[in-house]
Amino acid sequence: MTKTMKIAFQGEPGANSHLAIVEAYPTAEPLPCATFEDALSAISSGEADLGMIPIENSVAGRVADIHYLLPRSNLFIVGEWFLPIHHQLMAPRGATLAGIKSVESHVHALGQCRRIIRKFGFKPIVAGDTAGSARIVAERGDLSCAAIASPLAAQIYGLDVLAENVEDETHNTTRFVMLAREPRWAQPGSAPLVTTFVFRVRNLPAALYKAMGGFATNGVNMTKLESYMVDGNFFATQFYADVDGHPEDRNLAFALDELKFFSREFRIVGVYPAHPFRATFSETQS
């Protein structure tokens, strides 16, 4: 008998992370977790086989706290998923748009749907989770209270969708990474690939500039570079980066060698196929 794969996510059933799991792994069993720490712990302990963790959104920026993801979790990225975010305004059966007085959701969701909130004069109420707000609104049964959440949440909690796709920006998209206990590097040349790594530069003048020089001289495209403090220390900075390619590619290998020379710490977190959504990226030419 084939064992069903379990995938941990942060949030309640119906969260956008749950929706990403349904799209990426239709036969998997989603495992809801109260916090990101709980989700990562479920992966580390073996309770879950994978985790679906949001790390950035095209409107709100960084989503999950990178401090929990890297490097302390010691988990590895084995894939990525891009999910267009479509917010639905939902309320208990029998409610009407004209009768809604308040709307509750996660602070990011409320911020991404300002237009409809202003248009109808709803009172926004911040909740900890989009799907959780849908559950609470359903349990309360107050026809003047609505929630903003995913279409999956409306289905799970039996709510009527009063207005579809109420997000302000059509490009609202969240990038998720799939995390596992063990590394699973994609094969070189198998497809467009992404390599993710973390590093700390040595305490030398212009160390970061010199560490980054190898990517320019070797023609490596860096799609993401973020810095964050280590242990709350203003002078200890860790960097997280995504680059195109495989570490065994000649140009990327040279660039990483140069980076390592100027770094006191370096770890590859994942080598995985680029999601097809990346092919839709375009840069406006001035």
Automatic annotation (TrEMBL):
E.C. no: 4.2.1.51
Name used for this protein in its record: prephenate dehydratase
Alphabetical UniProt keywords: Amino-acid biosynthesis, Aromatic amino acid biosynthesis, Lyase, Phenylalanine biosynthesis
UniProt-recorded Gene Ontology molecular function terms: prephenate dehydratase activity
Source domain of life: Bacteria
One GO biological process term: L-phenylalanine biosynthetic process
Catalytic activity: prephenate + H(+) = 3-phenylpyruvate + CO2 + H2O
Pathway of action: Amino-acid biosynthesis; L-phenylalanine biosynthesis; phenylpyruvate from prephenate: step 1/1
Residue ranges constituting the ACT domain according to the UniProt record: 196-273
Essential for prephenate dehydratase activity, annotated site positions: T174
GO (cellular component) term, any one: cytoplasm
Cross-referenced CDD domains: ACT_CM-PDT, PBP2_Ct-PDT_like
Catalytic EC class: lyase
InterPro entries from the UniProt entry: ACT-like_dom_sf (IPR045865), ACT_dom (IPR002912), Chor_mutase/pphenate_deHydtase (IPR008242), Preph_deHydtase (IPR001086), Preph_deHydtase_CS (IPR018528)
Prephenate dehydratase domain location: 6-181
